[in-house]
Protein backbone atom coordinates (compact mmCIF):
# COMPACT_ATOMS: atom_id res chain seq x y z
CA UNK A 1 0.00 0.00 0.00
CA UNK A 2 1.29 3.48 -0.84
CA UNK A 3 2.24 5.89 1.94
CA UNK A 4 -0.31 8.34 0.52
CA UNK A 5 -3.63 7.93 2.28
CA UNK A 6 -7.09 8.33 0.76
CA UNK A 7 -7.24 12.01 1.71
CA UNK A 8 -4.19 12.72 -0.46
CA UNK A 9 -1.86 13.54 2.45
CA UNK A 10 1.58 11.96 2.54
CA UNK A 11 2.58 10.20 5.75
CA UNK A 12 6.00 11.06 7.12
CA UNK A 13 7.20 7.49 7.70
CA UNK A 14 10.61 6.13 6.79
CA UNK A 15 10.85 3.75 3.80
CA UNK A 16 10.25 0.14 4.72
CA UNK A 17 13.33 -1.11 2.94
CA UNK A 18 15.68 -0.52 0.05
CA UNK A 19 13.42 -2.44 -2.32
CA UNK A 20 10.15 -1.26 -0.78
CA UNK A 21 9.34 -4.66 0.75
CA UNK A 22 8.44 -5.10 4.41
CA UNK A 23 11.11 -6.75 6.53
CA UNK A 24 10.26 -8.90 9.52
CA UNK A 25 13.18 -7.26 11.32
CA UNK A 26 11.63 -3.79 11.22
CA UNK A 27 10.05 -2.80 14.50
CA UNK A 28 6.51 -1.47 14.21
CA UNK A 29 7.31 0.93 17.05
CA UNK A 30 9.84 2.70 14.79
CA UNK A 31 7.34 3.36 12.01
CA UNK A 32 5.41 6.63 11.83
CA UNK A 33 1.69 5.99 12.47
CA UNK A 34 -0.62 6.09 9.45
CA UNK A 35 -2.77 8.71 11.18
CA UNK A 36 0.18 11.14 11.47
CA UNK A 37 0.19 13.21 8.28
CA UNK A 38 2.50 15.87 6.88
CA UNK A 39 0.34 18.65 5.43
CA UNK A 40 1.00 19.18 1.73
CA UNK A 41 -2.19 20.98 0.70
CA UNK A 42 -4.33 23.14 2.98
CA UNK A 43 -7.43 22.17 1.02
CA UNK A 44 -6.95 18.61 2.24
CA UNK A 45 -7.07 19.86 5.82
CA UNK A 46 -10.21 21.88 5.14
CA UNK A 47 -11.98 18.83 3.73
CA UNK A 48 -10.82 16.69 6.61
CA UNK A 49 -12.21 19.14 9.17
CA UNK A 50 -15.51 19.38 7.29
CA UNK A 51 -15.96 15.62 6.98
CA UNK A 52 -14.43 14.31 10.20
CA UNK A 53 -16.83 13.90 13.10
CA UNK A 54 -14.02 13.38 15.57
CA UNK A 55 -11.33 15.79 16.67
CA UNK A 56 -8.26 16.51 14.51
CA UNK A 57 -4.90 17.41 16.06
CA UNK A 58 -2.89 20.15 14.31
CA UNK A 59 0.78 20.39 15.25
CA UNK A 60 2.44 23.60 14.01
CA UNK A 61 6.23 23.45 13.78
CA UNK A 62 9.26 25.09 12.18
CA UNK A 63 12.59 23.63 11.16
CA UNK A 64 14.57 26.37 12.94
CA UNK A 65 12.82 25.85 16.30
CA UNK A 66 14.80 23.38 18.40
CA UNK A 67 11.92 23.05 20.87
CA UNK A 68 9.85 21.29 18.20
CA UNK A 69 12.03 18.18 18.33
CA UNK A 70 10.74 17.22 21.76
CA UNK A 71 7.13 17.81 20.80
CA UNK A 72 7.68 15.85 17.57
CA UNK A 73 8.40 12.71 19.58
CA UNK A 74 5.38 13.19 21.83
CA UNK A 75 3.06 13.76 18.86
CA UNK A 76 4.23 10.48 17.33
CA UNK A 77 3.58 8.65 20.59
CA UNK A 78 0.12 10.18 20.91
CA UNK A 79 -0.72 9.27 17.31
CA UNK A 80 0.21 5.67 18.05
CA UNK A 81 -1.99 5.70 21.16
CA UNK A 82 -5.05 7.38 19.62
CA UNK A 83 -5.27 5.61 16.28
CA UNK A 84 -8.78 6.91 15.50
CA UNK A 85 -7.61 10.53 15.70
CA UNK A 86 -5.98 12.21 12.70
CA UNK A 87 -2.79 14.16 13.44
CA UNK A 88 -1.31 16.77 11.08
CA UNK A 89 2.22 18.17 11.11
CA UNK A 90 1.96 21.70 9.68
CA UNK A 91 5.02 23.78 8.83
CA UNK A 92 3.81 27.10 10.23
CA UNK A 93 5.73 29.50 7.99
CA UNK A 94 4.95 27.49 4.84
CA UNK A 95 1.20 27.51 5.45
CA UNK A 96 0.76 31.09 6.59
CA UNK A 97 -2.99 31.11 5.89
CA UNK A 98 -3.60 28.13 8.15
CA UNK A 99 -1.32 29.59 10.83
CA UNK A 100 -3.15 32.91 10.72
CA UNK A 101 -6.53 31.20 10.93
CA UNK A 102 -5.48 29.56 14.20
CA UNK A 103 -3.60 32.62 15.54
CA UNK A 104 -0.23 30.84 15.45
CA UNK A 105 2.64 33.18 16.21
CA UNK A 106 4.95 30.79 18.05
CA UNK A 107 6.06 27.22 17.56
CA UNK A 108 5.54 24.60 18.69
CA UNK A 109 1.78 25.01 19.03
CA UNK A 110 -0.74 22.19 19.08
CA UNK A 111 -4.41 22.78 18.26
CA UNK A 112 -7.20 20.27 18.76
CA UNK A 113 -9.99 21.14 16.32
CA UNK A 114 -13.43 19.71 15.70
CA UNK A 115 -15.16 21.04 12.58
CA UNK A 116 -14.71 24.83 12.82
CA UNK A 117 -14.15 24.94 16.59
CA UNK A 118 -10.97 24.86 18.65
CA UNK A 119 -11.52 22.51 21.59
CA UNK A 120 -7.93 22.41 22.83
CA UNK A 121 -4.71 24.40 22.54
CA UNK A 122 -1.17 24.10 23.89
CA UNK A 123 1.40 26.81 23.13
CA UNK A 124 5.08 26.08 23.61
CA UNK A 125 6.67 23.00 25.15
CA UNK A 126 4.29 21.82 27.86
CA UNK A 127 4.27 18.04 27.56
CA UNK A 128 2.01 17.24 30.56
CA UNK A 129 -0.59 19.74 29.36
CA UNK A 130 -0.37 18.43 25.79
CA UNK A 131 -0.90 14.83 26.84
CA UNK A 132 -3.80 15.83 29.10
CA UNK A 133 -5.46 17.99 26.42
CA UNK A 134 -5.48 15.13 23.91
CA UNK A 135 -6.74 12.71 26.54
CA UNK A 136 -9.52 15.08 27.62
CA UNK A 137 -10.64 15.68 24.03
CA UNK A 138 -10.71 11.96 23.32
CA UNK A 139 -12.69 11.39 26.51
CA UNK A 140 -15.20 14.07 25.50
CA UNK A 141 -15.61 12.38 22.13
CA UNK A 142 -16.41 9.17 24.00
CA UNK A 143 -19.05 10.94 26.09
CA UNK A 144 -16.96 11.68 29.19
CA UNK A 145 -17.40 15.31 30.28
CA UNK A 146 -14.90 17.30 32.29
CA UNK A 147 -15.94 19.38 35.28
CA UNK A 148 -16.81 22.90 34.01
CA UNK A 149 -14.50 25.81 34.73
CA UNK A 150 -15.25 28.34 37.43
CA UNK A 151 -16.37 30.95 34.90
CA UNK A 152 -15.23 34.49 34.15
CA UNK A 153 -12.64 36.38 36.15
CA UNK A 154 -14.16 38.31 39.10
CA UNK A 155 -14.01 42.11 38.86
CA UNK A 156 -11.64 42.50 41.82
CA UNK A 157 -9.16 39.98 40.39
CA UNK A 158 -9.38 41.68 37.00
CA UNK A 159 -8.47 44.98 38.66
CA UNK A 160 -5.43 43.34 40.27
CA UNK A 161 -4.41 41.98 36.86
CA UNK A 162 -4.64 45.44 35.28
CA UNK A 163 -2.40 46.80 38.04
CA UNK A 164 0.11 44.04 37.37
CA UNK A 165 0.03 44.66 33.62
CA UNK A 166 0.69 48.34 34.15
CA UNK A 167 3.67 47.50 36.33
CA UNK A 168 5.03 45.10 33.68
CA UNK A 169 4.66 47.70 30.92
CA UNK A 170 6.57 50.28 32.97
CA UNK A 171 9.45 48.05 34.08
CA UNK A 172 11.66 49.76 31.49
CA UNK A 173 11.44 52.89 29.37
CA UNK A 174 11.32 50.59 26.33
CA UNK A 175 9.49 47.35 26.99
CA UNK A 176 8.79 44.55 24.52
CA UNK A 177 6.46 41.61 25.10
CA UNK A 178 7.63 38.63 23.08
CA UNK A 179 7.38 34.87 22.81
CA UNK A 180 10.60 33.50 24.22
CA UNK A 181 13.67 35.49 25.18
CA UNK A 182 15.97 37.80 23.17
CA UNK A 183 18.59 35.03 23.14
CA UNK A 184 16.08 32.33 22.22
CA UNK A 185 12.93 33.78 20.59
CA UNK A 186 10.10 31.31 20.08
CA UNK A 187 8.56 32.81 16.96
CA UNK A 188 9.72 34.54 13.81
CA UNK A 189 7.97 37.83 14.64
CA UNK A 190 9.60 38.04 18.06
CA UNK A 191 12.98 37.24 16.53
CA UNK A 192 12.59 40.06 14.00
CA UNK A 193 11.54 42.75 16.46
CA UNK A 194 14.42 41.88 18.79
CA UNK A 195 16.75 42.13 15.81
CA UNK A 196 15.42 45.60 14.95
CA UNK A 197 15.87 46.86 18.51
CA UNK A 198 19.42 45.51 18.65
CA UNK A 199 20.34 46.91 15.23
CA UNK A 200 19.21 50.37 16.31
CA UNK A 201 21.08 50.10 19.65
CA UNK A 202 17.93 50.49 21.72
CA UNK A 203 18.13 49.36 25.33
CA UNK A 204 14.98 47.52 26.34
CA UNK A 205 13.33 45.27 28.85
CA UNK A 206 11.36 42.22 27.82
CA UNK A 207 8.67 39.87 29.07
CA UNK A 208 8.21 36.30 27.82
CA UNK A 209 4.44 35.93 27.53
CA UNK A 210 4.73 32.15 27.10
CA UNK A 211 5.66 31.93 30.77
CA UNK A 212 2.48 33.62 31.98
CA UNK A 213 -0.88 32.95 30.32
CA UNK A 214 -2.60 35.51 32.54
CA UNK A 215 -0.36 38.32 31.27
CA UNK A 216 -0.59 37.05 27.70
CA UNK A 217 -4.39 37.12 27.57
CA UNK A 218 -4.81 40.14 29.82
CA UNK A 219 -2.49 42.34 27.77
CA UNK A 220 -4.57 41.77 24.64
CA UNK A 221 -7.58 43.33 26.34
CA UNK A 222 -5.65 45.92 28.35
CA UNK A 223 -4.04 47.44 25.24
CA UNK A 224 -6.72 46.44 22.74
CA UNK A 225 -4.02 44.78 20.64
CA UNK A 226 -4.66 41.09 19.85
CA UNK A 227 -1.24 39.90 18.67
CA UNK A 228 2.38 39.71 19.78
CA UNK A 229 5.04 41.02 19.91
CA UNK A 230 4.01 44.34 21.46
CA UNK A 231 6.38 47.27 21.94
CA UNK A 232 5.85 49.96 24.60
CA UNK A 233 7.78 53.19 25.08
CA UNK A 234 7.35 55.09 28.35
CA UNK A 235 4.28 53.02 29.18
CA UNK A 236 2.49 53.66 25.89
CA UNK A 237 1.81 51.06 23.23
CA UNK A 238 3.70 51.68 19.99
CA UNK A 239 2.46 48.60 18.16
CA UNK A 240 3.62 45.32 16.72
CA UNK A 241 6.32 44.29 14.28
CA UNK A 242 4.73 45.88 11.19
CA UNK A 243 4.39 49.30 12.80
CA UNK A 244 7.88 49.21 14.30
CA UNK A 245 9.33 48.20 10.93
CA UNK A 246 7.61 51.15 9.24
CA UNK A 247 8.76 53.64 11.88
CA UNK A 248 12.46 52.84 11.70
CA UNK A 249 13.32 54.21 8.20
CA UNK A 250 11.57 57.51 8.95
CA UNK A 251 13.43 57.96 12.24
CA UNK A 252 10.11 58.20 14.08
CA UNK A 253 10.87 55.29 16.41
CA UNK A 254 14.26 56.64 17.49
CA UNK A 255 12.66 60.03 18.22
CA UNK A 256 10.25 58.34 20.64
CA UNK A 257 12.98 56.47 22.51
CA UNK A 258 14.38 58.33 25.57
CA UNK A 259 18.03 59.29 25.23
CA UNK A 260 19.02 57.13 28.19
CA UNK A 261 17.64 54.10 26.31
CA UNK A 262 19.97 54.61 23.32
CA UNK A 263 23.21 52.67 23.65
CA UNK A 264 26.32 54.66 22.83
UniProtKB/TrEMBL annotation:
Domain Thioredoxin residues, every copy = 10-139
Its name, as the record gives it, is: Glutaredoxin
Q: Which domain of life is it from?
A: Eukaryota
GO BP field:
intracellular iron ion homeostasis
Gene Ontology, cellular component aspect: cytosol; nucleus
Q: Which UniProt keywords apply?
A: Iron, Iron-sulfur, Metal-binding
- Glycoprotein found in the keyword field: no
Q: Name one Pfam family in it.
A: Thioredoxin
Task: Cite a single GO MF annotation.
Answer: disulfide oxidoreductase activity
Amino acid sequence: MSTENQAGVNNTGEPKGATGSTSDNISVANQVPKNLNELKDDQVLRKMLEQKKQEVVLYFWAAWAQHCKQVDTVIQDLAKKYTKTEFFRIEAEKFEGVSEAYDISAVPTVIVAKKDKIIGRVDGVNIPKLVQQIADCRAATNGITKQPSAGSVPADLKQDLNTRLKECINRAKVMVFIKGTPAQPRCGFSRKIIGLLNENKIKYGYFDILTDEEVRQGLKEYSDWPTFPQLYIKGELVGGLDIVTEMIPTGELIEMVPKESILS
